Amino acid sequence: MSGFLAPPGFGSAPGEASTSDLPGLVEPHNISIQQLTTRTKSLCSPSTGGRFMYHVVRRSSYALFFALIGIFVNRVRHWSGDMLHSISSRNLHAHFLFRKPLILCIVSKRREQLAAQLDVLFDQIVSTISRKQLEGVYEKRGDNYDLRRLLQGTDKYMDSCLESWQTDLSQISCAIRVFPLPAPERDFLSTTIATTITAAAPEGVLFGIVLAHRQLVSMVRYKKYTINPKDLHILINFVSNNSTISVCPIWTPICLPYFNDNGFLHAYISSLWEGSAAYLLLLSVDRNAFNTLNTIKEGITEKLKANTKLFPGIESAINTQQMFQISNIGAGSDAMWNFLYKNRSSQQVCLSALRPPIANDEERQHIVRTVGRLYGVLKSVEGTRVIYMRRKRDVLLVRAENSYDLQCVLSPFCTPANAWILGDKLLKALKTHEGKHFITHTLSF
């Protein structure tokens, strides 16, 4: 069920409520709806037994509000055996996700992709406590078990995965952003990792991954194993919020829910070379493989540095982050301000570099919100192929094909015909520069 929450007792059907009753839901000395609307987003994660686990806003008054939300959820379930999925008022939206034994709730001023954000939060929880462990601990300890004991120290990862929805277009588009690197350098990096792992012949290594600046630089795999973009985002989130990695290698268990949500891989994570913003991840099923993988990493670094022709290019690219320049499309490019291209098959995205008039954080946030809304439209309206929308400050063009999604922000003076022509030029330019901005094949070892 999805709908508006209705107050008990006014002739409402079970599970429905009038939005006019929302301001009365909370006692004045705790928190008001008006206070919640001053924040873009708040979130909590209680158990089905009502035990409060985690919330973005660390104030006890908010905990009381979310406890009340839990009462609504249970009321609807007891009334009709149904599940409450959402509550909406004019400027406040609450969405719920049921993943036994947890109920997750997000409250936001904006309604875009709230369910997807809850999915990401649940995946983040499972990355620390596998699905099997999560269900087992509640079966053993009961619904009122305080899961915060097992999640201690993970708040920064949960906060970050939600904050990324405000800034990271790859997260919103459920895809991976590939770090721009010329094809010869990327091939050399991938080949070096794959051959070094093969030569060492370690037991249980499944993936070798290089990340930099929250982007995928390179990946090699054992035979035909694959890794889901959502699992890659978990790894990106972990690396981005762990400062220890830049000082020394770390060895940690991590559950990747879309690879196996009932078990753990063991991750060796280290700077690719000293002082580098690129990080090497070696994922293994062997919990005792740290020393072996540390030796492999040293071998990879040594081989990279030994190539005086290609290594300087890799090092320079990591330090400079050269994004796709819209000027690559040629004549008329001034009318295109920003774009996002997603390859549906590889689940990889390419974003344009910021250019005037999109030149500050506020304008960037506007673009992020726009992309979020457009993806919501593409998901909710099946069969949508083209959207052309003229707004006061810009023009939006969306082209959704079987193989790709393209979203462009253009000058408000751009006509539909010119917008389409610029879209075609962009697609050709992306094909020309494909090797630099996409990973077109993954090596196996």
From TrEMBL:
Region (Disordered): 1-20
GO CC, one annotated term: Mon1-Ccz1 complex
Cross-referenced InterPro entries: FUZ/MON1/HPS1_longin_1 (IPR043972), FUZ/MON1/HPS1_longin_2 (IPR043971), FUZ/MON1/HPS1_longin_3 (IPR043970), Mon1 (IPR004353)
Lineage: superkingdom: Eukaryota
Domain FUZ/MON1/HPS1 first Longin: 66-160
A biological process from GO: endosome to lysosome transport via multivesicular body sorting pathway
Record-annotated FUZ/MON1/HPS1 second Longin domain positions: 204-300
Pfam families in UniProt: Fuz_longin_1, Fuz_longin_2, Fuz_longin_3
Record domain FUZ/MON1/HPS1 third Longin: where: 337-434
Record function comment: Plays an important role in membrane trafficking through the secretory apparatus.
Family named by the database record: Belongs to the MON1/SAND family.
Name of this protein: Vacuolar fusion protein MON1 homolog
